[in-house]
Specification:
GO terms for molecular function: DNA binding; DNA-binding transcription factor activity; kinase activity. This is cAMP-binding domain of CRP or a regulatory subunit of cAMP-dependent protein kinases. It comes from Chryseobacterium arachidis. InterPro entries: cNMP-bd_dom (IPR000595), cNMP-bd_dom_sf (IPR018490), Env_Response_Regulators (IPR050397), HTH_CRP (IPR012318), RmlC-like_jellyroll (IPR014710), WH-like_DNA-bd_sf (IPR036388), WH_DNA-bd_sf (IPR036390). The chain is of the alpha+beta class and about 200 residues long. Helices cover about 40% and strands about 25% of the residues. The strands form 3 sheets. The chain has a 4-stranded antiparallel sheet. Strands 2-7-4-5 form a 4-stranded antiparallel sheet. The protein has a two-stranded antiparallel ribbon with strand order 9-10. A hairpin with a 5-residue loop joins β4 and β5.
Length: about 200
């Protein structure tokens, strides 16, 4: 969790509910609020001229949404869309900055969170240049698993659909499905009840 929920309540953050597929903000909007997910899942995405979706990242409970844009005088370069029904804290930008001034430890937590995002962005951008689909998917799974304590083989259940994995790695869905089957044959992953164990 980026900011403790009790602290967000104490400074008057509103709780807003979003239905699945509803946008929290749109590409081109100006960032006026700090958002933090209470329940549900959110994706940051764009669409190209042909309408093809590109997912930048997937977020879940306890994570903040697009917080880096609050530190710049720029419009959002992406959409934030609820994947599931969500409850989200919404805190005005000026209150958020007052909170950072009053609580340096929160500022430190935000820096750690932003650093993780930058690291993920670098790993995934390097990965996009890789032509090997299995290497792309393995890099994604390695990154996701790196946050788990248990690191033994097949101990991590990948929390993504094949479609989401395809979007995050720049692969088509068919290639992703075929590659995962190959990874299972090579004993890099196990499939149980259609879920990938890595």
């Amino acid at each position: 969790m980026v900011i403790n929920e009790d602290i967000l309540h104490s400074v008057g953050a509103n709780i807003k509910e979003y239905k699945a597929s509803e946008n929290i903000f749109n590409e081109g909007d100006y960032p006026n609020y700090y958002y933090q997910i209470i329940t549900g899942e959110v994706k940051l995405n764009n669409y190209n001229e042909d309408g093809k979706e590109s997912i930048q990242t997937l977020l879940e409970s306890g994570e903040s949404i697009g917080e880096s844009m609050l530190f710049m005088d720029k419009h959002y370069p992406m959409n934030a869309t609820a994947i599931t029904n969500c409850e989200i804290f919404k805190l005005p930008k000026h209150v958020f900055f007052n909170l950072l001034k009053e609580c340096p430890e929160i500022s430190q937590d935000i820096n750690v969170f932003l650093s993780q995002r930058v690291y993920y962005g670098l790993i995934m951008s390097q990965n996009l240049g890789n032509q090997n689909p299995a290497a792309k998917l393995k890099t994604l799974m390695d990154y996701l698993k790196s946050f788990q304590e248990e690191q033994s083989p097949y101990s991590f259940r990948v929390p993504l659909t094949r479609q989401q994995m395809a979007s995050l790695t720049g692969l088509c869905v068919e290639t992703t499905i075929r590659t995962i089957k190959g990874m299972e044959r090579d004993q890099l992953v196990r499939i149980k009840d259609r879920k990938i164990l890595y």
